[in-house]
Design goal:
This protein is α/β, with parallel strands linked by helices. The protein has 2 domains: about 170 residues, Rossmann fold; about 80 residues, no CATH class. The protein has 9 helices and 10 strands. Strand 7, helix 6 and strand 8 form a beta-alpha-beta unit. Helix 3 packs across helix 4 and helix 3 packs parallel to helix 5. The protein is globular and about 60 Å long. The two termini are about 30 Å apart. Bound molecules: adenosine-5'-triphosphate (ATP). The site of adenosine-5'-triphosphate (ATP) has 11 residues, from strand 2 and helix 1. Adenosine-5'-triphosphate binds next to strand 2 and helix 1. Keywords: ATP-binding, Nucleotide-binding, Transport. GO terms for molecular function: ATP binding.
Length: about 250
C-alpha cells in the first residue's frame, strides 16, 4: 500500500482542563477523500487548524509527504502543498471572481511573474485562474465581482482560490455550511470532480454528502478517533451509532 500523504501521530490539543483533540492518529492515503465526522464539539475544526498550522499542537506529530511539518508555520505548509480552503472573509468583494483567483495564482508563484511583460503576466495569471474557476463550475461567472456572488458561489470561489495554491492535499472545513439545496448539490458535484485528482480531508455535517463522497471516514468523539473505515462499515459500527444517539444528524 502507498505511503500515507498525511499522517497524524498522537496529536493533542488542550485548552486548560479541556482536552479538545486527544491522541489523534490517522493516515490519509494519496488520492483519497477522507472525511472526519463527529458530534458537535468533538474537536473537528480544532484538528483541521492543527493540520493546517493555524494552531500549534501540545504534543504529537504531523507528517506530510514524508516530512515532519509539526513545527512549520501555515505558509510553510501551504508551500509544501498542504492547503486549506479559506473562509469567505478572505475573498475580496470588489474584485471579480477571476481576479480573486489570479491573485492566489500570483501569491503561489511569488516574484517569478515580474519577469514577464504586463500582457504576458496577465495571461500567465488569468489562464490558470480560469481553469480553476472552470473546475469548480464558476467559469461563467468569472467577470462578476465576488461580492455579488451567491453564498454557494462564494464557497465555490474559495475552492478555486485554494486550488490556485496547487495543493497536494486540501483541507475543507464544512464546505456546505450555509448553502441552499441547489448550491449544496453544486458544491458536492465540484468535490466529486476534484476527488481522485487531489487528496482531500473533509469535515462536513451533511451526512448524505459525506457518505456519497468519502473513500474513508474517521469518527471523532470527545477528541478521540473511535473509528476509521469505509462509509459502509462506519455506518454499521455500533460505537459510532451510540456516539450519534441524540444528535440531530444520524449516521
Ligand atoms: N480557543 C478555544 N478556547 C477554548 N475552548 C475552545 C477553543 N476552541 C475550541 N474550543 C472548544 O473545543 C471543543 C471542540 O471545538 P471544535 O470547534 O474543534 O469542535 P467541532 O467538532 O468542530 O464542533 P462543531 O461540529 O460544532 O463545529 C468545544 O468544546 C469548544 O468549545
Amino acid at each position: 500500500m502507498a505511503e500515507p500523504l498525511l499522517e497524524l501521530r498522537n496529536l493533542r490539543k488542550a485548552y486548560g482542563a479541556l482536552t479538545v483533540t486527544d491522541d489523534v492518529s490517522l493516515s490519509v492515503r494519496p488520492g483519497e477523500l477522507h472525511a472526519v465526522i463527529g458530534p458537535n464539539g468533538a474537536g473537528k475544526t480544532t484538528l483541521i487548524h492543527q493540520i493546517s498550522g493555524m494552531l500549534s499542537s501540545d504534543s504529537g506529530q504531523i507528517l506530510f509527504d514524508g516530512e515532519n511539518v509539526t513545527h512549520l508555520s501555515m505558509p510553510q505548509r501551504v508551500r509544501r502543498g498542504l492547503a486549506r480552503s479559506f473562509q469567505i472573509t478572505s475573498i475580496l468583494p470588489g474584485f471579480s471572481a477571476l481576479e480573486n483567483v489570479a491573485l492566489a495564482v500570483q501569491a503561489r508563484h511569488g516574484s517569478s511573474f515580474r519577469l514577464f511583460g504586463n500582457a504576458a503576466q496577465e495571461r500567465a495569471l488569468n489562464e490558470p485562474a480560469m481553469q480553476h474557476l472552470n473546475t469548480v463550475g464558476l467559469g461563467g461567472r468569472a467577470s462578476i465581482p465576488a461580492g455579488l456572488l451567491s453564498h454557494g458561489e462564494k464557497r465555490q470561489l474559495e475552492l478555486a482560490i485554494a486550488l490556485a495554491t496547487e495543493p497536494k492535499l486540501l483541507l475543507l472545513d464544512e464546505p456546505l455550511a450555509g448553502t441552499g439545496h441547489d448550491e449544496s448539490l453544486r458544491v458536492v458535484e465540484t468535490l466529486r470532480r476534484l476527488k481522485g485528482r487531489i487528496t482531500i480531508v473533509l469535515i462536513e455535517h451533511d451526512m448524505d454528502a459525506v457518505f456519497s463522497l468519502a473513500d474513508r471516514v474517521s469518527v471523532l468523539v470527545y477528541g478521540r478517533v473511535i473509528a476509521t473505515d469505509t462509509p459502509e462499515n462506519v455506518r454499521m459500527n455500533e460505537d459510532v451509532r451510540t456516539a450519534y444517539l441524540g444528535e440531530e444528524e444520524t449516521v
